[in-house]
Amino acid sequence: MYAAETTQNFRWISQLVATYSPHTLTSADRLPPELELWIAEIGQFAEVAYCPFMDALFEHREELGRIAFPLEHYHMIHEVKLVASFKGAVANLPVSVVHCPKSCRLIVGISGTSRISQAIQDLRVLKTRHPTGRGYVHTGFWNLYQGIRAEAILAIKNGLRGHPEDGELVLTGHSMGGSIAYLLLLDLLTDDKSLLQTGLHIKIVVFGVPRAGDAGLVQYLRESMTSYRRQNGEASMKEYSVRGYNDGVPALPLLSFGYRHFAEEPIYTIDGRLYRIPSSESEHTLFHVVEDGDELDAPIFPRGGHNYYNRRELEVFVIRLIWIQKAEFPKAGWEERYMILYAKYSRHTLPDTWRSQQSTRDEHNVS
């Protein structure tokens, strides 16, 4: 598995700069199984957000959801309707907004870094004063957010107006996309309160998120979240910021640069299990975990890393998207071209149905 990795998992950064908390996580900190499952399902939208051709993805989701195709492990995509998809004005950052009729939920997914131009913004770690005057923000992340802000807010406004039955708004993203989701949340709670109907429940669900603001901005967001809960009920605002074992990204930018995490009580994941981190340990990114022996499962991804959240390998999805594009999807014959690429490059076994199709074609060619 790990020898075949082609994307960066930032384990080396974790080894260099991440700190272990003196606090040991135990079974008492474990999230309920139903909440773990729900977070993993929302995580599907954080991962699918990386797709640069969202409209076509939705149009062909049935074909793309078959075994060995990109959406094989993303069943939630079949339960939603695409409201909007666009790329930001800065570095073409992809954003998607979907409506889930079954749960009356609007979900905004923001892509993490997938292009060199976006990585350049990631590296712009000098701080910029936030327009509110309440702190400083990562310059590169702020640029990326400014590039999606207007369209994202308009899409949310249209989504809520078009589906007035929706009582929940979810913001999600992986890596840098999660940091952008936090900046969007801050705007929604302060600058653009008018588009949030009374009683709307808001949830932010992010994975492997780097620090994006200083202590002042972090405090401002936390105050804004507390104020929203006070006005709309304690359950109206929920935060799930998940950081994984051996993922170096949450350790960046460094504390010594003046950055802090937005999440007051983040979540730690190892081997697919989720644990609530005490607020006193919110800046640590590594933890020792002690569970009852009979509760431990065999390790799923024992080395951890940036692309191993929600019991899935994000790299598999991204690589399959690349093969789909190389196969000239959705032009005629794209499936056969994709099968050839899969057979040549995948470390997974060719599905039996594909073998039978290949045999049929070979027999036809011989005859």
TrEMBL record:
Domain Fungal lipase-type residues, every copy: 108-255
Keyword Disulfide bond: yes
Keywords assigned: Disulfide bond
Pfam families assigned: Lipase_3 (PF01764)
Keyword Phosphoprotein included in the entry's annotation: no
Catalysed reactions, as listed in the record: a diacylglycerol + H2O = a monoacylglycerol + a fatty acid + H(+); a monoacylglycerol + H2O = glycerol + a fatty acid + H(+)
One GO process term, biological-process aspect: lipid metabolic process
Record-linked SUPFAM superfamilies: alpha/beta-Hydrolases
InterPro entries attached to this UniProt entry: AB_hydrolase_fold, Fungal_lipase-type, Sec_MonoDiacylglyc_Lipase
Family under the similarity heading: Belongs to the AB hydrolase superfamily. Lipase family. Class 3 subfamily.
PANTHER family listed in its UniProt record: ALPHA/BETA-HYDROLASES SUPERFAMILY PROTEIN, FUNGAL LIPASE-LIKE DOMAIN-CONTAINING PROTEIN
Name of the featured protein: Fungal lipase-type domain-containing protein
Native organism: Laccaria amethystina LaAM-08-1
